[in-house]
Prior knowledge:
- By secondary structure, the protein is an all-alpha fold.
- The protein has a domain at 123-198 and 220-368.
- Helices cover 63% and strands 1% of the residues.
- The protein has 14 helices and two strands, in the order αααααααααββααααα.
- The chain has helices at residues 4-16, 29-44, 53-58, 65-74, 80-84, 97-111, 125-149, 167-200, 207-219, 241-270, 281-306, 317-338, 346-363, 370-385, and strands at residues 231-232, 238-239.
- The protein has a two-stranded antiparallel ribbon with strand order 1-2.
- α2 (29-44) packs antiparallel against α6 (97-111), α4 (65-74) crosses α6 (97-111) and α12 runs antiparallel to α13.
- The radius of gyration is 24 Å and the shape is elongated.
- It starts with a helix and ends in a 12-residue tail after the last helix.
- Bound molecules: protoporphyrin IX containing FE (2 copies) and iron/sulfur cluster (2 copies).
- One iron/sulfur cluster (SF4) binds next to α5 and α6.
- One iron/sulfur cluster binds at residues 40-41, 44-47, 81, 84-87, 95, 97.
Amino acid sequence: MQTLEDLTREAITxxxxxxxxxQAAPLSDSVLEVSRQMMICNGCRYCEGFCAVFPAMTxxxxxxxxxxxxxxxxxxxxxxxxHACQYAPPHEFMINVPRAMAEVRKDTYTAYAWPSRFGVxxxxxxLWIAIALAIGLTLFLQMTANFLNGxxxxxxxxxxxxxxxxxxxxxxxxxxIFAFVMLSLSLGVxxxxxxxxxxxGAQGASPVAVANASHDALKLKYLDGGHGEGCNNxxxxxxxxxxxxxxxxxxxxxxxxxxxxxATLYHxxxxxxxxxxxxxxxxxxxxxxxxxxxAGCVGLFxxxxxxxxxxxDPTQKQMDIGFIFLLFLTSTTGLLLASSHESSSMPLLLxxxxxxxxxxxxxxxxxxxxxxxxxxxxxxxxETEKRLPSNIGLSGE
Length: 397
Ligand code: HEM
Ligand code: HEM
Ligand code: SF4
Ligand code: SF4
């Protein structure tokens, strides 16, 4: 009886007119699965115009581990090639590119995590998010309770959160965590880039390549399915909703970070102490960012719940939903805190907000947040590679 592998080889040989080369080195199951699917896609090429993955694929006849790591992070999980594919399940070729790519993506986050032993946190990410949240909330609720029960409680000013957590105390708690997040993410993506550079040409990225890749990432060009109508979610219909809700989430997050940065400048350069008036720049940035982030998270959550069962990797649902939940919790507790001045709920809301921020920061380098940075790195390599002569036959390992 013919195995699935035999059938696949036959299909590739028929479509490509050449036989399937044997793999040079042992590859992981997830990488082998993408490699198998890419061999078939390379013969079919129906989805050529959908996204960056297919043009990058056609430059290759063989797929080594580095090629697959690169392609997996180029994939935006838009679902267009799943819904268009005549070989998708229940067809015996079982082609499901977005799922196979998602599995490899998680493996790359795990493999390139820094420090490497923390890579395991991607595997059971829901548990890690729950632990981080328990740490953050317990720490701040306990510290607030200690403050309110202690002699210092007499200094409590319900219009000023610094009366509970002085500015320097907040800086000494959050700055080291933030610095660690930055270091960990930078070293992780550096290792990933070193890996995929072999497969995408030795050249460094030009400013044009970086600018084009950033433009495509900021616009989420590859959530458009190649025709500008948007991506697939629950069925064959195209929709731009996922892209728009992601924009609300992404730009809302950036506005919140901008609000915190401007407030830091006000504090250290001008000596202007928070809380600021409603019409001040930090407040305007923070309120608009918080509303945008909360709305984006609700939309992404609903779309995620409705997504087609074959679309994406089901084992990563907890990572996606956990990240959406943490972003939502951080933004809504921030908004409630900002509107709680003079109210007796301020200490509780402050503890909840700071606990949520801590959980978010602790999980940033070992959770869904990695997707943005790894995708940007892959897009930069794509913009670099496409300016080189075709590297068919020069596949990296
Ligand atoms: C360094 C970590 C952070 C600290 C110490 C912090 C602290 C605070 C404080 C004290 C407020 C109340 C401001 C006021 O009432 O004037 C606030 C508000 C807020 N925070 Fe945070 N926060 C941090 C990070 C974040 C992050 C990462 C987000 C979102 C991703 C966020 C979202 C918000 C929002 C939406 C508000 C309400 C709008 C505003 O007042 O600016 N915060 N935060
Ligand atoms: C270079 C920047 C970024 C790019 C290119 C990007 C791209 C994408 C893409 C293509 C998806 C859908 C596929 C998937 O689930 O992986 C996605 C999902 C998501 N992104 Fe981003 N992203 C970026 C940055 C961010 C940032 C900064 C945030 C928020 C802090 C964010 C929040 C999310 C969330 C919550 C999801 C999950 C949505 C779902 O389950 O469908 N992204 N991103
Ligand atoms: S996903 Fe299916 S339709 Fe698209 S190129 Fe691959 S085999 Fe062809
Ligand atoms: S899911 Fe979308 S982005 Fe990923 S390979 Fe298919 S068409 Fe390209």
